[in-house]
UniProtKB/TrEMBL annotation:
UniProt keyword annotations, A-Z: Signal
Locations listed in the record: Periplasm
Residue intervals of the SsuA/THI5-like domain: 47-263
GO cellular component: periplasmic space
Record organism: Catenuloplanes indicus
Protein name as it appears in the record: NitT/TauT family transport system substrate-binding protein
Coiled coil: none
Pfam families reported in the protein's UniProt record: NMT1
Similarity remark: Belongs to the bacterial solute-binding protein SsuA/TauA family.
Signal peptide positions on this chain: 1-25
InterPro entries: SsuA/THI5 (IPR015168)
Length: 321
């Protein structure tokens, strides 16, 4: 949870990932005697609710997939797991996958994951201040301390864009790395002036009197794609049938999730500790089946401007399906 969807790939981790990329992936089981065991690395957050619901609905078993979901702190753990064959597929935020691509880590997106609602003020993530704060807009974040769950990732890029569009100076923001679960307390104590918060912590901040002053996802791009499911390029090349079946099952899960929000709120209780009251009130992401490429081009360009990719530009052609 601590790393949520802004899952950084630190230089050290990337080095390990790259090393793992040279190891042979687990050979796919081509047997026909029963369902194929498939393990997916996920983060225990709201965004992955569709895959849990899809498993319950039989969208994977109907395609011969015996799905096992294994939770991890974030992509820093999931990407190496995918490359080593411990996981056949994984879930990660887009910026982390872009960082991986610029490091020549052999992964590729196979299905969409989650997206912004596209509604300013009604998104599942936003920049919030504590009750009584003098900051009333994104421009007021200039020169302030802002919490993000991971430095140099999607939080930095999108918050800077909110400030830039509001007429502030994004270069003067001091970002502070704090896990999402700890952000409400950090705001209350004054440890930071503002925080980029996502659900369910966003609901907790608002319940305590906090105010959302910017919707950083919607400020970045309309209907921004936030996260995706991915696989190693070795598996994609060697077992296209499995990848096809998994992608079809995920897409069915995403479409079903978008059409059945009540069932999504219910399935959250199966893998999170979010209370029933919060589950009923929180804002859900959108789960389109298609990656919004235009939004990723914007995210990549902004990340390059902000130095997220170490002076290189992500090659979306090598990352997208």
């Amino acid at each position: 949870m601590r790393r949520y969807l802004a899952v950084a790939l630190s230089a050290a981790v990337l080095a390990a990932v790259t090393a793992c990329g040279g190891s042979p992936a687990e050979e796919p089981d081509t047997g026909t005697s029963g369902p194929r065991p498939v393990t997916v690395g996920v983060i225990p957050i709201v965004d992955v609710a569709p895959i849990y619901l899809g498993k319950e609905k039989g969208f994977f078993s109907s395609r011969g997939i015996d799905l096992e979901l294994v939770t991890a702190q974030g992509g820093a753990a999931i990407v190496p797991g995918v490359l080593s064959g411990d996981f056949q597929f994984g879930f990660s935020n887009i910026t982390s996958l872009m960082i991986a691509q610029t490091k020549n880590v052999p992964v590729r997106i196979v299905a969409n994951g989650a997206a912004s609602t596209g509604e300013p003020g009604k998104d599942f993530g936003g920049v919030a201040v504590a009750k009584g704060s003098s900051i009333t807009s994104a421009a007021g974040l200039s020169g302030r301390k802002v919490a993000v769950n991971t430095l140099k990732n999607i939080g930095d890029t999108t918050v800077r864009e909110s400030v830039r569009k509001a007429g502030g100076d994004p270069g003067t923001i001091e970002f502070v790395e704090i896990g999402f679960p700890d952000m409400p307390a950090a705001l209350e104590s004054g440890q930071v002036d503002a925080a980029w918060v996502v659900e369910p912590q966003l609901s907790a901040v608002k319940a305590a009197g906090g105010t959302v002053i910017a919707s950083n996802f919607t400020d970045t791009a309309p209907n921004l794609t936030i996260a995706a499911y991915f696989a190693g390029t070795k598996l994609i090349a060697e077992d296209p049938a499995l990848v096809k079946n998994f992608t079809e099952a995920i897409n069915e899960s995403l479409a079903y999730a978008d059409a059945h929000p009540d069932e999504i709120r219910t399935v959250l209780s199966s893998y999170t500790k979010i209370s029933e009251e919060v589950r009923a009130a929180l804002i859900l992401p959108k789960w389109p089946t298609e990656v919004n490429r235009a939004s990723l081009e914007t995210l990549a360009a902004l990340g390059s401007t902000d130095g997220i990719f170490g002076g290189t530009q992500p090659d979306l052609g090598k990352l997208l399906p």
